[in-house]
Every structure is written in C-alpha cells, then in structure tokens.
C-alpha cells in the first residue's frame, strides 16, 4: 500500500524487511541525535549506533505498521515508526528497563513510562491494545515542508484501516506536539520539563513531555 505526496514527488510506502538497515541508518542520522530528550541527555552523537534504541526500533519495524516517505529514487526522506501496545506489555517493558545498563537510555524511557503511568488508557477507553505512533523522523534536507504531518496523517489512516480504536503518541518536542494537535490528538497527561534536573532538561521551545491520544472513528 502506498500514497503519494506533492512534496518533491514523495511517496509513502511500507518499510520492507530488506530496508530495515537503511531505516536504522536514517534514524541514526536524524532522530537519534535530534529528538529533544535524546539530545538533552546526550544519548548518542549523530550517525552513531545506539544498541538499546536500535533494538526498540527494530522490534517496532517488525510489527509491520511503520511507514516511510521515499523520493523517486527510493531514498528515505522521512519515517513514521508505528507499533502496537497490548495491555500488560508496558509493565513488562518497565521490568526489562531495570536490567538495562545504559543509564541515559533508562532515563529517557523511564520518563516515557512515567507519563504513561498517569492515565490507564486501556481502562479509560475500554480497549485491549493501542496503536502507537512511536517515532516521527524527517531527513534534515526535507524539514519545514510538512513531511511529519503527512506521515502522521498516513499513520492515523493505517491505524483506522487495521481496526484500532485508539491512537497514542508520547510527544517529547514542541514540533511533534504541534503536528499531533493539528491531526486531532488531545493531551491526556504531561511532565513539564521544568520539573527535570537541568542536566537532562530539553531546551526551549520544548516545554513538556506529553501523552497524546486520538480516538479513531
């Protein structure tokens, strides 16, 4: 399944297994270093491998709901890593996180789990699984052209087509939050960055980590 974008003749397509390595390479050059919390804690340098984060991304890719924007030559301009969270899985992930040695990774995912602890989405919306928009990543050469919005809109349609009732995102930055609001997501819970130690606090314009949700028709 694919859809076209007028931006530089880009097309949104699934991420096949034979392009997982390219997908990870794209993320190393863009999302890994630029995401506000990653940047604040100094998780990794641009282009550098990050074992735990790459493991998380590969597990998400293997779920089969991720999408990418490619140009006429097939080069990746942007990606949306989407996955499914079932009831009870986050608690298991929290137990695994305690065994991880990378303290910077633990800090980031500890915050993500903390904001999710603030509201039980499964109980609130009476569902057993959630569609998660986990990562939006746009190549530096394509930023400012609305690609994140295209990817999120496509992800929402992917969730609807697959029959999910609730779509969620752990939005860490001002830009991703703006895109989520544009597409009808609402804030369910948040952690203001002013509450964090200065050594791990994202800089402006990023103000808070927000758990955002969109109900699907």
From TrEMBL:
Pathway recorded for this protein: Aromatic compound metabolism; melatonin biosynthesis; melatonin from serotonin: step 1/2
Catalysed reaction, written as an equation: serotonin + acetyl-CoA = N-acetylserotonin + CoA + H(+); serotonin + hexadecanoyl-CoA = N-hexadecanoyl-serotonin + CoA + H(+); serotonin + (9Z)-octadecenoyl-CoA = N-(9Z-octadecenoyl)-serotonin + CoA + H(+); serotonin + (5Z,8Z,11Z,14Z)-eicosatetraenoyl-CoA = N-[(5Z,8Z,11Z,14Z)-eicosatetraenoyl]-serotonin + CoA + H(+)
InterPro entries from the UniProt entry: Acyl_CoA_acyltransferase (IPR016181), GNAT_dom (IPR000182)
A Pfam family recorded for this sequence: Acetyltransf_1
E.C. code: 2.3.1.87
Protein family per UniProt: Belongs to the acetyltransferase family. AANAT subfamily.
Entry protein name: aralkylamine N-acetyltransferase
Positions of the N-acetyltransferase domain: 68-217
Single GO molecular function: aralkylamine N-acetyltransferase activity
The keyword Lipid metabolism belongs to this UniProt entry's keyword annotation: no
Species annotation: Pogonomyrmex barbatus (red harvester ant)
Keyword tags: Acyltransferase, Transferase
């Amino acid at each position: 399944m694919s859809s076209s974008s007028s931006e530089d003749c880009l097309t949104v397509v699934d991420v096949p297994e034979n392009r997982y390595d390219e997908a990870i390479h794209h993320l190393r050059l863009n999302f890994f270093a630029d995401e506000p919390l990653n940047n604040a804690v100094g998780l990794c340098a641009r282009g550098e491998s990050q074992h735990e984060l790459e493991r998380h991304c590969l597990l998400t890719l293997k779920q089969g709901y991720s999408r990418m924007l490619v140009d006429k030559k097939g080069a990746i301009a942007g990606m949306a890593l989407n996955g499914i969270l079932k009831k009870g899985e986050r608690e298991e992930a929290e137990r695994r996180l305690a065994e991880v040695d990378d303290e910077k990774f633990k800090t980031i995912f500890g915050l993500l789990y903390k904001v999710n602890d603030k509201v039980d989405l499964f109980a609130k919306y009476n569902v057993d699984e959630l569609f998660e928009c986990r990562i939006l990543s746009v190549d530096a050469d394509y930023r400012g052209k609305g690609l994140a919005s295209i990817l999120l809109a496509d992800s929402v349609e992917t969730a609807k087509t697959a029959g999910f009732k609730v779509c969620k995102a752990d939005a860490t930055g001002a830009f991703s939050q703006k895109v989520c609001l544009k597409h009808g997501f609402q804030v369910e819970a948040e952690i203001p960055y002013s509450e964090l130690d200065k050594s791990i606090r994202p800089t402006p314009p990023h103000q808070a980590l927000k758990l955002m949700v969109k109900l699907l028709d």
